[in-house]
Amino acid sequence: MGDSIVKALSGVSLKIEKGDFLVVVGPSGSGKSTLMHILSALDHPTSGKVFIDGEDTSVLDDWHLAMIRRNKIGFIFQTFNLIPTLNSVENVTIPTEPMNLDREQVDERAVSLLKIVGLGHRLFHKPQELSGGERQRVSIARALINEPEIIFADEPTGNLDSVTGKHIIELMRKLNIEEKKTFVIVTHDQSLLDFASKKVFLRDGQIIKLELNSKKGA
Ligand SMILES: Nc1ncnc2c1ncn2[C@@H]1O[C@H](COP(=O)(O)OP(=O)(O)OP(=O)(O)O)[C@@H](O)[C@H]1O
Ligand SMILES: [Mg+2]
Question: Any signal peptide, and if so, which residues (predicted)?
């Protein structure tokens, strides 16, 4: 920023293991979104490395990084990021568009994912005809369409009331346990820590504490 250097993250070392339900909490500006972007290879760190499935992402070109993101990673956003003119099934299948897949099979898979997230009765609704919680369920189904290994969620409950938010985090935990998906969730909302298998506390760009949840370990 002009002459001053902002260190959004500093000295962060973190290992995410298969089956983790990792919740990162920290106040606004603590570096949560930056951490997500670095971990998911959307941004490059100025120093340090990120390994995904043992692969050093710092040596990969943009095409390989895009392939990793498409095949191994699902994303969930605070603002859902659904396309308003498309219905639920169409929104869920969007990440598969660049791929040469059998459309009928993809649609079938989208329908089954929408059923898993509890939206079997909202398959052909447009986002504006859905509640906030329902929109986030569509975006969770979309995150799963390419059968990713890991799902990154940035403030997934940030635009939802607390009861709906709890249902959404419970759904993600269920997918973690039943579908064996790894989740990394960043949030300022401390109440989401109750669901975590691993808890990371971020402050001023540094991990100040890492805790395992003995009660709910995945
Ligand atoms: N492109 C940038 N240039 C300069 N500073 C940046 C940039 N992006 C982020 N920052 C700074 O880095 C720090 C971390 O930002 P980040 O967006 O990761 O925080 P956050 O924890 O996600 O906050 P929030 O809860 O408000 O979303 C902040 O101080 C922010 O101002
Ligand atoms: Mg953020």
Answer: none
- Amino acid residing at 80: F
Q: Percentage of the chain with pLDDT > 70?
A: 98
**Is residue 82 lining ligand 1, measured as CB closer than 6 Å?**
no
Q: Whose CA is nearest to atom 17 of ligand 1?
A: 33
DSSP line for 31-98: SHHHHHHHHTTSS--SS---EETTEEGGG--HHHHHHHHHHHEEEEETT----TTS-HHHHHHGGGTT
- Domains recognised in the chain with CATH numbers: 21-45+57-84+147-212 (3.40.50.300)
Cβ within 8 Å of residue 104, ≥6 positions away: none
pTM flag (> 0.90): yes
Q: Residues with beta carbon < 5 A to ion ligand 2?
A: 32-33
Q: And the tokens for 158? A: 């940030």
Residue 69 dihedral angles phi and psi, to the nearest 5°: -65, -40
Instruction: State in Å: Cα 130 to ligand 2 middle.
Output: 25
